[in-house]
Amino acid sequence: MGCDPRSLRKAAAMLNSRSAFVAIGLAVNGLVLVRGLVLMVALDYEGLGFVGLVQVAIASVGLMHFGVLNGGYRLLCHAGPRTQQRIADLAYTAFAAIGAALIIGAGTASFAMGDALHHFIAVFTVVGGLATLVRSWVHNELVAGQRLSAVNAINSGSTLASLAILLLLIPERPIAPPLLIAASAIVAQPILFVGLALLSGAAKRPRALRFSKIVARPILSAGFALFLTGLALQLIPLIERAYVSRTLGLEALGRLYLSILFIALFQIVPNLVQQVFLAPLVEVWRRRDTQALRRDMRRLTALITAYCAVVAGTLALLAEPLLAAVLPEYAPDLRWVYLTAPGLIAFALAGPFALRFNILIDYRWHLGAYGAGVLIAIAVFGATLLSNTPLSLDQVTLIRSFIWALMGLILMIGATRIAKSRPQLRLFPTRALLS
């Protein structure tokens, strides 16, 4: 039987669109690397430690969506235009309520602490966190609608514009404190992304702030468990950085900045690729097209595996000479990148298999894996605080790497069990495996 030329053209166009989306994501990844390198040149270790705290605080606040982001995205993948608008209205209503609560909470906390540093962190945490929250929603909406070219343009423009703020660090006497400029560049990107998306009409604007139980129920049902997993995943670096800054100081946290930057850069590509594949996978699962489902799952697995291999090879062969040529004073800090990489790569390799949980809207294994990671972090760092035996940076990094690897292992075990009970989610038909 011959293939329909129109179907082939449509498939080719979709593949090209996905490839362009990931390629632009890599380019933006490069811009984030540039930002990190500029900050490493402009700030001392204590300043980098402060930036690391601000970043993890913003990321933590950006997860305070209670399932709206995940559940809304899952429903947007196959909702009609009217339902999509109702979902968007509900999302922005939730963001408005969350924003109000954040302002009250951060204001109260910073006033109680009364320290200028905490005031500074509180302001940027609220502004950056809320902007990150809305940016994640807009990004998900555009990806769910397969408007990947719009995401590419807006992401590139907002990242470049936020990088321009760092030009203020060039003069010998900047017009503002370097830490203020650095934090402003970080916060500006999500603000600009949201502004460009809404002003250009690429993303849906809210027509009214209203709460609908009919819309909220399936969103929270689909997204609340995944919200808990994301929150647990973000708690791990928050606990780690709070521990290091408290016991070893901001300068010690700054020495981990290169590994923190590596983690952020490394995760961009797997997250992008999985986002691109999720909506089509949900659609073919809904249509019960097992052949297409397996084909896309194999492609996703191959892409992530190849990416991890390239990263491992680059670290082994090029990382040290490149860093020695560009920022030789930070070359000793590579040891913590090397200690982090194995666990992070193991976790990334589990990602394509764990996507089965997203397809089925079953996040019990996510909760188990990330919950275990949080409990280990709390137990280990808490025990060392109580016993007054501080860990070294090597030990902190090894604990982090072990937690990543353990979570990846748990997810792989869960994905394997899911595939046993649902043969259509296996990468290959049973006969192919036996032959």
Mean pLDDT: 82
Shape estimate? globular
Which range does the strand content fall in?
under 5%
Number of strands: 0
Q: How do the helices and strands follow one another from N- to C-terminus?
A: HHHHHHHHHHHHHHHH
Number of helices: 16
Fraction in helix = over 70%
Look at the helices and sheets and give the structural class.
mainly alpha
Low-confidence stretches: 1-5, 7-12
Largest sheet: none
- Determine the N-to-C terminus distance: 26 Å
- C-alpha-based Rg, rounded: 22 Å
Descriptive overview:
This protein has helices at about 5-40, 45-60, 70-75, 80-115, 115-145, 150-165, 180-200, 215-245, 250-255, 255-285, 290-315, 320-325, 335-360, 365-385, 395-420, 430-435. With about 425 residues, it is mostly helical. The chain has 16 helices and no strands. It is globular and about 60 Å long. It starts with a helix and ends with a helix.
List keywords for this structure.
mainly alpha, 0% strand, disordered N terminus, 16 helices, 435 residues
